[in-house]
Hints:
alpha+beta; L-amino peptidase D-ALA esterase/amidase
Amino acid sequence: xxxxxxxxxxxxxxxxxxxxxxxxxxxxxxxxxxxxxxxxxxxxxxxxxxxxxxxxxxxxxxxxxxxxxxxxxxxxxxxxxxxxxxxxxxxxxxxxxxxxxxxxxxxxxxxxxxxxxxxxxxxxxxxxxxxxxxxxxxxxxxxxxxxxxxxxxxxxxxxxxxxxxxxxxxxxxxxxxxxxxxxxxxxxxxxxxxxxxxxxxxxxxxxxxxxxxxxxxxxxxxxxxxxxxxxxxxxxxxxxxxxxxxxxxxxxxxxxxxxxxxxxxxxxxxxxxxxxxxxxxxxxxxxxxxxxxxxxxxxxxxxxxxxxxxxxxxxxxxxxxxxxxxxxxxxxxxxxxxxxxxxxxxxxxxxxxxxxxxxxxxxxxxxxxxxxxxxxxxxxxxxxxxxxxxxxxxxxxxxxxxxxxxxxx
Length: 409
């Protein structure tokens, strides 16, 4: 049975972490380190943006080859994207520096970066920072928090959690940390997400579980419609729980996959709650769709539509924008069979019934939309498929934050 426990990236056996301010950014922590005491299986899902930052190119080669890894080094404040061959060399030096610190080969270290695109990496600062920080690696709770603080940019809070479950009679723990609040859009990855677990599982099934969870979580969120150059989700499994190795899709695999989905959904929703300048959290649920793909297309189209987002910011029950977004999504639905309602702690109101508009009280609708968390429930009568997506509103504060992002980071 799944149980949420206090912890983060260091909660599973054999993982250590550290995080520190080394001088890439002006004040906040900007370096995070992670190690596994033993070689760990590693799987990754990466941004679909054609422009990929140097760390993603490095990591893809390692994870796709199924190589085991021992560490991860992440910097914040500089994306190392669009930095040419020098950026490739800098990324390799970053991996090599940390690898020497922990006594492994550089191909056993994955890398990540987040921040401003197109800037040269301050390698003297980074190399010194890694050498100064690796001695602080530990499995303590504070070390996990420091690492989670070291990966964020415009985030207003750190995102971390851990869960415990029973696999093959052994206690298995999954922990993680994530970052993200802007440049968020479907087609993962849309954040940096790092998950650790002490489960003993094959590389193939670890990758499958991650891929499936990303499809249902990070690929179903949007803040601003911008697909980043640096985003990825990584999961490390070192096998130190001692369970019988999972090599087939049995009940134990399903339990692990559900737990991984649970964590990634929590992180995905955290990202939306932390959306840059956001004042509303929006959940869209499509039920009764002809296919799962149709449901996903429609749900994502609603949360990515700027007219819907601005209506939510203005607390205006302009449901016509939602129907229009669905119609342009590429997903199939019969417009004569739609039910739609808005729901929040302020109440619930029906807007459409079987494709017909319902006359509603505007004041009641305004009360509902005045709340922080808004739920848009859309029921179709085309099939049995469903999907959820998460997004936020779009207002003045988002423009302010991103208008000065480069100069104030």
